[in-house]
């Protein structure tokens, strides 16, 4: 691999300064499960790699009154092992769990999955469905908190400015009878890239009627898609055959996929509808039990 | 550009080395430290032949930079046996003939050892999903899984003693 410089800052400000001050291309290193592959293939040629893992707070999960704060570089295995997070947001955890293999899970992070900005990222639909926010650090001590859906602007592109990087994800405290789910379809059984990914977060009233919802599709457009019409199909309704049919149709309508070796446009569109149905069923069942 | 000095622990031993920033942990293990048990199968984190354990988690050493090992605890295939005493997973691989060319074997053994450290009673499905990141072109996986399940049974019996 071509030569590169490496920095391992121990504070956020040190990291932001290193990124902002780099004369050439500087890349953030969390788990490295996308970065090193791209380095090796020559797809990117950074001059500087900045490892974020030594900064306190970048790895770890804490609960603050029911809200979750997740360090940006926290590896998947830590998320999967966190019982309270799994209970509150099983959809996010199962999305993270589907990324790669057990070896990838030992390193891959939410921030990396989001900022790599693949349309097929597995953790992203449920993160967005949860209305998660991201705290971004920048040069000169700047901090800003933005909705997770504002980060990806296109395949491989983010809204982050030079010198900026994610430090935390904030997940709101789930309401009573609120829960989520994530399903994806892949051609193989494991270790593949989503043909369609669907993350749904719903809130129900005591009678099982949906009072709030977010339906997010991955891998069917240049970025993940928040399907407003699908949410409207759920809100005010129970999950009966009629609701499912409207949800299915709304999901299909929102798709703008490409045809590639894993699936055609027609196939991805149909599967989006199928997954929306199945994901909603799981989310509703979980929400009713919370 | 000067090299980085790394201080780490590999298979229980304190180890120091110099490496360039772009060298992967796999490069360092094989080229700098002579620990050639970990194999380079794909260099893209798909095949698992380079699997090592870092701070208790299995990772692909081809997706980790050598500089990242600073202060961490690393275990490689070379550290799985205790001297001459094979780990139950290794013993069962031999008994079940769970290898042919042997190229994927170090990765499988490290990954399987980590599985059993984590869960001494996996179902076959759990074992297969845990090992999904390790690819084998020779065996068709059947004997590998039987070996792992048999090792688990032996280790449970031993723990029960």
List the helices and strands and how they pair.
The complex is a heterodimer of chains A (290) and B (161).
Chain A: E1 5-7, H1 12-21, E2 26-29, H2 35-41, E3 48-51, E4 61-64, E5 67-71, H3 76-81, H4 83-88, H5 90-97, H6 102-105, H7 110-115, H8 124-129, E6 133-137, E7 143-147, E8 152-154, E9 157-158, E10 165-171, E11 178-185, E12 196-204, E13 210-218, E14 225-226, H9 228-234, H10 241-253, H11 265-289
Helix pairs in contact in A: 9-10, 10-11
Chain B: E1 4-10, E2 13-19, H1 25-32, E3 51-54, E4 57-60, E5 73-75, H2 88-95, H3 105-118, H4 124-130, H5 142-160
Parallel strand pairs in B: 1-5
Antiparallel strand pairs in B: 1-2, 3-4, 3-5
Helix pairs in contact in B: 2-5
Write up what this structure looks like.
- Chain A is of the alpha+beta class and 290 residues long.
- Chain A is built from eleven helices and 14 strands.
- In chain A, the strands form four sheets. A five-stranded antiparallel β-sheet of chain A has the order 4-5-10-6-7.
- Chain A starts with a strand and ends with a helix.
- The model of chain A has no long low-confidence stretch (mean pLDDT 97).
- Chain B has two domains: 76 residues, Ubiquitin-like (UB roll) (Roll), CATH 3.10.20.30; 73 residues, [2Fe-2S]-binding domain (DNA polymerase, domain 1, Orthogonal Bundle).
- In chain B, a hairpin with a 2-residue loop joins strand 3 and strand 4.
């Amino acid at each position: 691999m071509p030569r590169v410089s490496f920095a391992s800052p121990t504070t956020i400000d040190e990291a932001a300064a290193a990124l902002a001050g780099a004369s050439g291309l500087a890349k953030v290193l969390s788990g490295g499960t996308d970065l090193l592959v791209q380095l090796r293939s020559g797809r990117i040629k950074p001059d500087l790699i900045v490892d974020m893992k030594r900064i306190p707070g970048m790895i770890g999960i804490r609960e603050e009154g029911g809200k979750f704060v997740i360090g940006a570089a926290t590896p998947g295995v830590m998320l999967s092992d966190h019982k309270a997070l799994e209970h509150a947001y099983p959809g996010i955890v199962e999305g993270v769990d589907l990324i790669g293999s057990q070896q990838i899970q030992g390193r891959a992070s939410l921030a990396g999955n989001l900022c790599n900005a693949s349309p097929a990222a597995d953790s992203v639909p449920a993160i967005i469905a949860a209305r998660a926010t991201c705290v971004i650090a920048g040069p000169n001590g700047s901090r800003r908190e933005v909705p997770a859906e504002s980060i990806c602007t296109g395949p491989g592109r983010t809204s982050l400015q030079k010198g900026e990087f994610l430090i935390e994800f904030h997940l709101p405290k789930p309401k009573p009878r609120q829960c989520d789910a994530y399903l994806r379809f892949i051609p193989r059984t494991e270790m593949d890239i989503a043909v369609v990914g669907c993350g749904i977060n719903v809130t129900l009233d005591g009678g099982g009627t949906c009072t709030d919802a977010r339906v997010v599709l991955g891998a069917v457009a240049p970025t993940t898609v928040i399907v407003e019409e699908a949410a409207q199909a759920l809100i005010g309704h129970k999950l009966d055959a009629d609701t499912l049919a409207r949800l299915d149709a709304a999901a299909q309508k929102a798709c703008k996929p490409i045809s590639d070796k894993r699936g055609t446009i027609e196939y991805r569109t149909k599967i989006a509808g199928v997954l929306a149905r199945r994901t909603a069923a799981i989310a509703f069942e979980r929400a009713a039990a919370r | 550009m000067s090299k980085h000095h790394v201080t780490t622990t590999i298979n229980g031993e304190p180890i120091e080395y110099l490496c360039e920033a772009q060298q992967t942990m796999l490069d360092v293990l094989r080229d700098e430290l002579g620990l050639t048990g970990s194999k380079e199968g794909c260099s893209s984190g798909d095949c698992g032949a380079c699997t090592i354990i870092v701070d208790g988690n299995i990772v692909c050493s081809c997706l980790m930079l050598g500089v990242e090992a600073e202060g961490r605890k690393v275990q490689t295939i070379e550290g799985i046996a205790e001297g001459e005493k094979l780990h139950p997973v290794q013993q069962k691989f031999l008994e079940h003939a769970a290898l042919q060319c042997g190229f994927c074997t170090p990765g499988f053994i490290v990954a399987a050892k980590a599985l059993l450290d984590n869960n001494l009673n996996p179902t076959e499905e759990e074992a297969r999903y845990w090992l999904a990141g390790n690819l084998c072109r020779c065996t068709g996986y059947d004997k590998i899984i039987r070996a792992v399940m048999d090792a688990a049974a032996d280790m449970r019996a031993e723990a029960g003693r």
